[in-house]
Amino acid sequence: TKDNRRHCQACRLKRCVDIGMMKEFILTDEEVQRKREMILKRKEEEALKDSLRPKLSEEQQRIITILLDAHHKTYDPTYADFTQ
Predict the structure, then answer these.
(1) Keyword annotations for this protein (predicted)?
(2) What does the pLDDT look like over 28-47, one tens digit per residue?
């Protein structure tokens, strides 16, 4: 029916195939699960890398901020050496 057309998986699949989707690209439940697990594993590995990455001290962050402020105050984009 029109009401459940959006919710019926068979109707949804038929619509996709009708507009050109190839059935060969449909993942099995196991493939979907493996893909989800790989994504989760990558996220966990990235989080671990981030946690192991050295952090700047407050003093280092303060010095970088001072240097950036000084650079922004003195930078002249029209200076000939910067335009080449």
Answers:
(1) DNA-binding, Metal-binding, Nucleus, Receptor, Transcription, Transcription regulation, Zinc, Zinc-finger
(2) 999 999 999 999 999 999 99
